[in-house]
């Protein structure tokens, strides 16, 4: 798909906020690291939140992705509201070798998205990670596809370890976000600056549903 990172000057056409969510240990931080730096290593559980920035070109547009990674463990999670605020894309990750991480996406994570997501058009992607451990797989590809359909998500199976489908996952999500006009408006620098000026200079427009 022709992606490249590290364009000079750090200039970009569109900027998107993308979130990673899912149970502890499913590989959210590894996925992020694998995408950002092509390196794969064992990581300690995430405490609080972290984010990384990646510049890439998708569909002829230069994109700046700010990818947020939060702790799957409840006791390490903070600031859930601001984590979700303004996200254009949400990646829901499970581990194909641990069924409870799959069922929790429905029971816990999808509900949290409903509750906190501020963009109703926000694009979601379901990701089954650790497909390199095929012999230990307990969640089939078909089950994954069915849940994605139910939740209205894109779907991909990948491995943060072998990097199989890792770039495709983020690129596909970005492409989909670019197809949603309301998300594009928020992602564009120009539009955001105009909006900012407007709200600074006058009372907020009437009839808006989002703050
Ligand atoms: N075999 C295999 N192991 C993986 C893969 N992705 C992650 N792991 C392993 O799973 C462990 C947990 O990965 P993390 O990325 O820390 O998981 P996390 O979802 O960020 O967990 P929290 O930060 O606690 O929410 C790591 O030690 C990795 O070694 C993968 O694709 N294949
Ligand atoms: Mg983590």
TrEMBL record:
UniProt cross-references to PROSITE patterns, sorted A to Z: RAB (PS51419), RAS (PS51421), RHO (PS51420)
Domain of life: Eukaryota
Membrane topology, from the record: Lipid-anchor
SUPFAM superfamilies assigned: P-loop containing nucleoside triphosphate hydrolases (SSF52540)
The UniProt record lists the keyword Membrane: yes
NCBIfam families: small_GTP
Function as written in the Swiss-Prot or TrEMBL entry: Intracellular vesicle trafficking and protein transport.
Protein name: Ras-related protein RABC2a-like
Organism: Rubroshorea leprosula
